Amino acid sequence: MNVCDWDKNAENYLRRMVTHCGAAVPSAFPTEIFEVSWALTTLIPRVISFDDIHSFIKYFSDHLQSGNGTLGFTKAILADAGDTSRALLSQAVLQFSPDVQPLLQHFFTGTHFRSYELEGSPSFTVNCNVLLALLECPEAYGQAKVIEQTLYFLLEAWENGATVDKWNLDRGYPLMLFSDCLLRLLQKMEAQVVTFPEPTFTRERLIVVLWQILSRVLESQLPEGSWGHSPECTSYSVIAVAQYLQLPWSSEIRSALLVAANAGQNYISNGEGEDDQKIDHVWVEKVSYGSALVRKSYLLCALHAPQEQRLWSPDTTKLFTVVTATETKNMSKLLAKTPLLQANPISAFGLMLLESSHYARHLRVERNMIVAESELPKANDKYVDFIPVFWVSCNSIRGHPLSPSIIWQMCLLSQFVYQMDAYMEAKVSQASAHAIESIKARLVAVCQNTTLSRKPKRASECGEVHDTSIPTGEEEALEKMCDVLEAYTKWVLERPSVLQSPLTIQAQLAGELLDLFLAHISHIVDNLTLRNVQDYPGGAMDNTPSSLGAPYFNWVTTIGANDTSCPFASLFFSCLISKPEMNCFSTSPQARYLFQSVSRHLAIMCRQYNDYGSAERDFEENKLNSLDFPEFGRPQENNACVAFDTASKSVGLNST
């Protein structure tokens, strides 16, 4: 490169290297700045003291001076933010104050740092390395806005699942770096060296991310004690676990951390003497490569990582005790009874419950986003605690495929489904027959007008239905009910992930939401009929709900299934996990058919399990249940559960 004539000597050199070095050729050589800076900042002060390496101050100062304050992975190579920040960090940990201005001038974009000045896509780990350097360089404390912007970039990337590294193939490497960033930042905040506009919120946000990272690190450890069957990859995670031991965990979680760290250290120790020259090809440039020096430094750091707990302020400590030992024990017993979670240790439940408690707190904050608390029935809201537990635990045992932002969106949706169900049961069920018909017309008008628009229209924009037969005194209550249900519709259909979906998917989602509303209303009307409410015309005199006039199969695959919200929620979920302007289940007719078929089948199962569990209560409260259909032949005097057990084979409940 950068020459006009072919260099035969260079060709001979490359041929000789390929012959003698196992056919592995790095993208560039030498890499002394990369190797020395990475090794040094990894080992200090965990393994070696400042006195041993003071001469390196001049080494990095000379290189930075010759590069006008920036460096590449070797001399005279294009400068990058990663190597520059590691060199600055090396100087900082050697108690020398480097100049961070060239780093900011060349690589800071206003929201994050680029690896190279002309880089298109940002690197998560490069921004971690930059943040580490800024936190250790006293001069950078005057750049509070830069630290804040870099942190928020990393937090947003984490919450959106965008942490896959461009420069290292192992998934544990960015987790180790990010953990180091967050822990150092917490320490600086405690010492009031670094401040943020909302310190309490920022501290809580950092700690929640630390919980999430630790959960992923622990659950990816293999039975032999390694991570990825690789000593170097194992060292990344052992270092991360050792960092977490500084925090004020419960005794159960701390014990689990010690077990994981010791198992990883044993794996490294047992394999360390077998092949000292073995290199893990986990680093990436144009090709994957390894560095014996960098590898050795990480292994040494992992083997000698301290395991002591630091002293923390009461404000920080209490965030690690938001879930008491009794709550953890009780919830763990409950979760352990489910087939999916019965094999998990109590320490895993502890982390799940800590993360879930964060979502539960925020669900309570958002509880009245759409409908005022006075409009909701005064009921036990324990579901607010259970919703995040189910999402977090299922995500955990499957290797965390869902990002925190997706978990949060589904927690919100689950809460709103509960609320909408309770609201309709409390308010819509009290409306007159004419008012209920008017509500249905309004919902149809709103949901069906999303097919040609990116946003749902209000009923007034669609040609509002005005029913003159509604009593004057009920009009205000009707308007309020319609406004609330339209607000639910707007919240769902104006989610960013929904608006980025194809118009056909948006229209389908609006249709599924409409089916959910109409199924709720149909169920309410059937319940009113069972209670002999004379106001609703048709069937009230003989207490026979209209749904019972159709075969059970027809009802359970339509109204009964839609009423569970499963078809609607499944499609909403598909919008969250799909790329913009795409839907992951619409890549072919077969994929879309199977997705809808599975969603419908799950909805039917949900309806049947729900009716099985609430059969006696529904009978006492005169609510329509699967067992009321003629196919089950439930005598009124018989126990509902016995009747359902007898009939369950016919609907496939026991065979699932």
TrEMBL record:
GO molecular-function terms, A-Z: magnesium ion binding; terpene synthase activity
Coiled-coil regions listed in the entry: none
Gene Ontology biological-process entries: diterpenoid biosynthetic process
Highest taxon of source: Eukaryota
Family membership noted in the UniProt record: Belongs to the terpene synthase family.
PANTHER family cross-referenced by the UniProt entry: (E,E)-GERANYLLINALOOL SYNTHASE (PTHR31739:SF25), ENT-COPALYL DIPHOSPHATE SYNTHASE, CHLOROPLASTIC (PTHR31739)
Name of protein: Ent-kaurene synthase
Protein's organism: Byssothecium circinans
